[in-house]
Write a structure and sequence with these properties.
five-stranded antiparallel beta sheet; 45% helix; 2 domains; three-stranded antiparallel beta sheet; 11 helices
Length: 291
């Protein structure tokens, strides 16, 4: 890893950067304090990147600093309980204060709020209707909805429950949320399906094959299966545990909507969903079914 460069405080801005309490300190000392804070943050991020546990040698090599310098900082971080050292292995680990900071940050995470900017970008760039859905008591439920200037007339709004089997949104939950209730809803919908609807699915294992397709593509697309004349693309939102926590969906009139799995709309929806997932903490050491 390339070491993050030390932050240099610009002339005239140093008192703002380090706070009014340090305004009376000499310029050199103020800069050293900012550089020390930056180095400490680099070490904490480096230890997290190494799985939260590492030897002094490994951490020093990762951040490209001398072991002696890293050790000095680790001692200070240990005094603040940001770092601890395991007595049995002598390895350095993230401390209890890091846990408290992480938990505080996770409590603030909300998939709907984090997806708002993505919904607006999709609406404006693609000129399509888009929404976020989460798993509710009765199935995937729309919780945030955005329409373009010339909206497509559909009978879905905030609070609408989407089909697990026939909507792109529902198929994301079917494929990536390993819950018996989701499979049960899909099985009920399949039992009530028409001959034409069944013909769109695998004859031998309709639900199993559909799950595999969604898992492989990390995306679901439908064309006229949920609403006649409407196509849709949906992509998953994962939280910091790697668990599916929502779906980001774009839909439009079939005639002018590219519903191909590798098309422009699907690529844009997947990209925005990945960005939302990153803001929710996905990929920051998370493990789970969503990975």
């Amino acid at each position: 890893m390339k070491k993050t460069p030390d932050f240099k405080v610009a002339d005239g801005d140093s008192s703002d950067a380090v706070g009014s309490a340090d305004a009376a300190l000499p310029e050199r000392e103020r800069r050293q304090r900012v550089q020390s804070a930056t180095t400490a943050v680099v070490l904490l991020k480096g230890l997290a990147a190494l799985g939260g546990r590492a030897s002094l040698t490994a951490l020093a090599a990762y951040v490209d600093e001398s072991p002696a310098k890293v050790h000095r900082y680790l001692v200070s971080l240990m005094e603040e309980a940001l770092i601890a050292q395991e007595p049995s292995t002598q390895l350095y680990v993230l401390g209890t204060e890091c846990l408290a900071i992480g938990l505080a940050a996770m409590r603030l995470v909300d998939p709907v709020r984090e997806a708002e900017a993505s919904l607006v970008r999709l609406r404006e760039s693609l000129e399509v209707t888009c929404f976020v859905a989460v798993m509710g008591n009765r199935g995937p439920t729309i919780v945030r909805f955005e329409e373009p200037g010339l909206p497509v007339t559909v009978n879905v709004r905030v609070g609408s429950v989407m089909s697990v089997l026939w909507s792109a949104t529902g198929r994301v939950f079917l494929g990536l949320l390993d819950e018996s209730r989701v499979r049960a809803i899909a099985a009920d919908e399949l039992a009530q399906a028409s001959t034409d609807q069944r013909a769109t699915l695998d004859a031998a294992d309709p639900l199993g094959q559909l799950r595999l397709e969604v898992q492989a593509a990390r995306c679901a697309v439908v064309k006229d299966t949920n609403l006649t004349g409407i196509s849709a693309v949906a992509a998953p939102l994962f939280d910091f545990n790697g668990r599916l926590c929502g779906a980001l969906t774009a839909l439009g009139a079939t005639g002018g909507f590219d519903s191909s799995i590798d098309g422009r709309i699907a690529a844009a929806v997947r990209l925005e969903a990945q960005a939302v997932s990153a803001r929710l903490g996905y990929g920051a050491g998370a493990s789970g079914a969503g990975r």
